[in-house]
Amino acid sequence: MNKALKASSNDKIISKLFFRLLPVQILLVGIPSLNGIISSLFASNMLGEDAMTAIGMYAPIVQFITAISNVFLGGSQILCGKYMGGNQVERTQEIFSLNITAVSITAVIASVLMAAAGAFQMTGFMNPDPGVIAMFNRYLIGCAIGLLPMMLGSQLSAFLSLELEGSRSTIATALFVVTNLVLTWLFVGVLHMQAFGLALAASIGYWVYLTVELLYYFSGKSLLKLKMVKFRMPDLSDIILIGFPGATTALYLTIRRFVLNGMITRYVGNAGMSAFTASDTLLAIFWAVPLGMANVCRMLMSVSYGEEDRQSLKDVFKTMVGRCLLIQLAMMVVLILLAVPFTRFFIRDISDPVYQMTATAFRLMPLTMPLGLVCQAWLNYGQVSRKQVLTHSLALIDGMLCPCLAMLALVPAFGMNGIYYALILNGIVTVVYPMIYSAVVNRGIPKTLDRLLMIPDSFGAPEEDRLDISLHSDAEVVNIAEQVQRFCEEKGLEERKAYLSGLFLEEMAGNIVDHGFTKDKKEHSVDVRVVYKDGDVILRLKDDCIPFDPKQRADIADPDDITKNFGIRMVYSMAKDITYQNILGLNVLTIRIP
Question: Which domains does the chain have, with CATH numbers?
């Protein structure tokens, strides 16, 4: 089959899977943003500028907490994807249990520290205004109550996606929003609990969110279960080592936000902080789109890397910087056009200085989103492929070094606009830097995507030792046995093994086409890969039909019809090893020929 046609077919499968997983991931990323916008709207319209400033002061703290959570989430997700791609279910289970335990302990410790800081008024260094600090301390205590469910909920959401239970997270998100809105109105509008009421409403919402997710794991239906297994300390080290590079951006963002807050306080004042908080909290909802895309990218890349599937790895990257980038550019234009209506959500008085600063933010800040999407694609790829120098250096440049230096240079001259100019400049730098890095590694301008991504030649089976075929109909299945047999004979395999390879693949591919393609009216394809490795032949079939384990049919023997399921039972009785998994909605069947 033509190589370009094969790549196109695989790209379609990846693209369909990508956008099927995307809506849930956007919702998951957007939960803290939904909390921020609810708090900001009530604070700006009921509590005033001090409350908005207090919420803005909390931003770097929640970014730091998110960074810690992302270390566990990123590392665990990549390891689980790798083990799932390698058909190691038990190892996936162990990583899940270790993740949940470690995050729970970390969240409890952080909650106690946060509550103590607020209760004992240890935050005076963050703002010189006593009224703002008093408001901030009460807000901090309320947030501490919801820290455990917030961190644990984000972890469980990722694992629910791996089990194709994203709809449960959608329900949990809806209940979180409703709970937060109702309780915020009650605590702030009726009971006048001020900043503490804002935070307490969100915290209770997080507990509702976590409860909905936990019900699935307590039901006994989940593939992954929390077990008190003997944890391997090297696993915890791997989680942190793998997760840390991707999370360093959030750590650097914490430092960046402290610098940003300091620059605004010094050169603009509380009015500038109020304006930035308003724009930042509302745009955070829309940032959930590129960040949700990044989460899906990381999941699919980790599975592709575990399978050593070079083509799928490239297709995921192309989806991010192709189709996803076009979506992000369109959204950027819409956001800029809505600058004035968005501003009026928070400030209605056109003569108020905060109004103009907020409107300018809504016009300029969306420009950073497409740039940030490309940066996230590179960060996720570097994290999954263990390109530590690229990942660490890009995280440092994007998260702290470039924006902080730019703000220090521009804010004294341009005031609040200097903040916005600095962030746009940072986005441009982070798009250009990975390409420069790749050119340095390749010692020249890379001319193919393989070279641009710096994929090692040793990654996956060499092209001459693998055969890739895409099937779309019964007619194409007929010729597959001959193609596979010829490929095996060219590798010098004995006639029997070459014949069995073609026979087994024709039988299993035909079964998928006959039973999977007819279950719905959607277009489907089977991605077939034949690999010669260490004297063995490995057959891998991947399809996007409904979940189906062929072993279930192989185990069914009808005494009245000995020919029923004969082909599948023959394959299972003669193959050296057969494994089946449903990974992120794709059926993956791997057969090793003896």
Answer: 3-449 (no CATH), 463-593 (3.30.565.10)
Instruction: Determine the angle formed by the axes of helices 353-364 and 416-442, rounding to 10 degrees.
Output: 20
Least confident of 252-261, 376-385, 413-422, 572-581: 572-581
How much is the pLDDT for 565?
55
3-class secondary-structure state, position 2: coil
pLDDT at 2 over 60: no
Instruction: Identify which of 2, 83, 173 has the alpha carbon closest to the alpha carbon of residue 579.
Output: 83
Kindly report, residue by residue over 260-278, the tens digit of the pLDDT.
888 998 898 888 888 888 8
The answer to whether 162 and 80 are in contact (CB under 8 A) is: yes
Pairwise CA distance, residues 401 & 467, whole Å: 46
Determine phi and psi for 492, rounding to 5 degrees: 85, 15
How many whole angstroms separate alpha carbon 522 and alpha carbon 539?
A: 25
- The C-alpha torsion from 59 through 60 and 62 to 63, rounded to 10°, is 120
Query: Which residues, including other chains, have CB under 8 Å from residue 130's CB and lie 6 or more apart?
Result: none
- How distant, in Å, are the alpha carbons of 85, 88, 294, 345 from that of 528? 15, 21, 27, 53
The confidence score (pLDDT) of residue 341 equals 92
SS3 for 29-61 is HHHHHHHHHHHHHHHHHHHCHHHHHHHHHHHHH
Q: Using an 8 Å Cβ cutoff, are 318 and 8 in contact?
A: no
- Decide: 305 and 82 in contact? Cβ < 8 Å: yes
What is this structure's pTM?
0.69
Q: What element of type H or E holds 514? A: helix 495-516
Residue 425's pLDDT band, with cuts at 50, 70 and 90, is very high
Q: What is the pLDDT of residues 381-393, one digit of tens each?
A: 988 888 889 988 9
The answer to whether residue 558 scores a pLDDT higher than 70 is no
Contacts of 370 (CB under 8 A, 6+ apart): 290, 325, 328, 329, 332
Token pair recorded at residue 346: 């928070």
HEC-encoded secondary structure of 339-402: HHHHHHHHCCCCCCHHHHHHHHHHHHHHHHHHHHHHHHHHHHHHHHCCCHHHHHHHHHHHHHHH
Burial code (b: 16+ CB inside 10 Å, e: under 16) for 65-81 equals: bbbbbbbbbbbbbbbbb
Res. 212: pLDDT tops 90:
yes
**The pLDDT of residue 233:** 73
Model confidence at 501, in pLDDT bands (50, 70, 90)?
Answer: confident
**What is the spatial distance between Cα 27 and Cα 30, in angstroms, rounded to a whole number?**
5
> What would the two tokens of residue 445 be?
């301008």
DSSP states of 102-148 as a string? HHHHHHHHHHHHHHHHHHTT--GGG-S-HHHHHHHHHHHHHHHHTHH
220 conformational bin, left if phi > 0, alpha if psi -120 to 50, beta if neither: left
Task: For residues 282 and 36, give the distance between their C-alpha atoms in angstroms, rounded to a whole number.
Answer: 8
Sign of CA dihedral 37, 370, 158, 401: negative
